[in-house]
Amino acid sequence: MRAVQVLQPTGPADVRVVDVPEPEPGPGDVVVEVHSVGVSFPDLLLSQGRYQLRPEPPFTLGVDVAGTVVGAPSGRPGVELGARVAGVVPYGGAAERVVVPVSAVFPLPERTSYDEGAALPMNYLTALFALAERGHVREGETVLVHGAAGGVGTATLQVARGLGARTIAVVSTDEKAAFARSAGADEVVLVEGFKEAVADLTGGRGVDVVLDVVGGDVFTDSLRCLTEQGRLLVVGFASGRGIPEVKVNRLLLNNVDVRGVGWGGFAMTKPSYMRGQWDLLLPMIESGVVRPPIGATYDLDGFGRALQDMADRRALGKSVVHVR
Question: Which has the closest alpha carbon to 87: 38, 128, 43?
Fold first, then answer.
């Protein structure tokens, strides 16, 4: 079968589609015939040898998948043979068939496309973990979202709305502003001067929660945007401008928190956790509050190009690769 592999961890240019053996499931695994694969930031880091996981090359990329169950253990509702599902793996999903632990396979509603299914697991479960588990977002609070036109950003806008929060999207261009609005942002501001814009929008009060996937230069002003007992959620450092440092006196003086958000390491070691998250997400999907905005789509041979577009910050929403 065909699979997208990293031959050398030197970046997207060394990603290739090659023939690999069929996967061999264990007793608790599901075999999914893959229709669509989401392109995720961990894929880019894996291709560059910069992710916390360091598999030995050659290895197959792909974190988020959607397709049809062609092999499954008995007794798991929603993942029977022929079921439409989404799934998530640390890597290895960008192939014609993939083995996924049964705990990481989720039933797709009928009106959810395979492209949308491949956009859901990592980004939306990360957003739900960040906002509900780490941020303790409550109805009526205001959430500021950096990188709001990207995959995690748009997921956060929609999940925050599902939790009853108001959202302010921070983006770098007018094109991204329009995309964030279409994804559900209540307000949109440009990153240049965002602190002052947020103060105007909140009447000087500030926001309750900041979700930061960018890092770098925006970090300190994000802290300054928080109201009393506000929470800054650190999800990533997509700007590539280094990891910011916290002057803890800012936390003490304003009674604010900085909280790390590491969904993968937390969720993948707890067999029932992700399925519980999916059960919370399903009503949002079925009501239409959650509907992943798909940006560019590619064929399987274009996976490397999709990664390069992500590296060049050209991606909007979730990029998706079609396997069949």
Answer: 38
